[in-house]
Amino acid sequence: MAEPPVRFGILGCAKIARKLSRAITLAPNSTIVAIGSRSLEKAISFARENGFPASAKVYGSYDGVLDDPDVEAVYIPLPTSLHLRWAVLAAQKKKHVLLDKPVALNVKELDIILEACESSGVQFMDATMWMHHPRTTQMREFLSDPQKFGQLKAVHSIFSYVEGPEFLKNDIRVKPDLDALGALGDTGWYCTRAILWAAEYELPKTVTALPDPEFNEAGVILSCGASLRWEDGKVATFYCSFITNLTMDITVLGTNGNLRVHDFVIPYQESAAPFYVTSNSKFVELAIGCDPSPNEHIVGTDLPQEALMVKEFSSLVGGIKLHGSKPEKKWPNISRKTQAVIDAVKASIDKGFEPIEVVF
Hints:
By secondary structure, the protein is an alpha/beta fold. Strands 7, 8, 9, 10, 11, 12, 13, 14, 17 and 18 form a 10-stranded mixed β-sheet that branches. A 6-stranded parallel β-sheet has the order 3-2-1-4-5-6, sandwiched between helices. Strands 15-16 form a two-stranded antiparallel ribbon. It contains 11 helices and 18 strands. Residues 146-259 form the GFO/IDH/MocA-like oxidoreductase domain.
């Protein structure tokens, strides 16, 4: 007998909530039962335009969703400055928390959120979708192969996009009172996660922001970069931006092989995602080519990565609800490590690009 689906409420009508609403609908073990907005009219329109079930309840406040006894879990796509208040309140009301990234403005805020979730026995997960694509699992298998990949030596990651003048003027991600971390918190979150993922979540010893980050008039970061260093000699760099053409690259270099992926954040095709690997490469005679050439691996999926994320989250929630399982601690730990590196990059920028030791 199939287990009942996890019943989701959504706080807010952000653009990304459209994508997650679809994901909740597509995932086989979840359903939408409520949405709340500061404007009842906006919530009604959002529910109608995004094909919510006719039974879904609509509220003119976030509190309405959290007070609804039918809501078991919430997706929170609010501006980062509001995460602390609403994620903590959700946890206190025994709602499992799927929180958009960046999860907080700093580790101190995140720790309060995580403590609230732990105290209430609810599951926490950040909404970093690419982590749940089957491609990510296959890439990890390659990186874990000592013959094909060897020892990790370096990682380079880039995530940038351009949305135009209207975005740079009015989007919440460039407003200091809403998302003060700017590009570092948005695109930089993905770059940082990619680096930590490649390093199997071993934190670097130090982080140094690269000189000449770009800011808007309000002092919000529009582009920046950083270098990371580990005690065993591993290194990594990243670049994140709101003002550079769309790029979503990871390059992972090992002693015996390397891996490249060019669309790691959002696959160019929803149903199939490629990555490229090569092992023991050498120049051919006269150095007019190399052998072997990189191999392309294409990983198909029946569900988009965001639906797979919801499916995984709902599976954890179902285990807690129906079988008395404890909340999975892996996901909060990964979130905290990512936030710790983001904090160190911000501190390095603020201190004139000094190396900052990562504290966890």
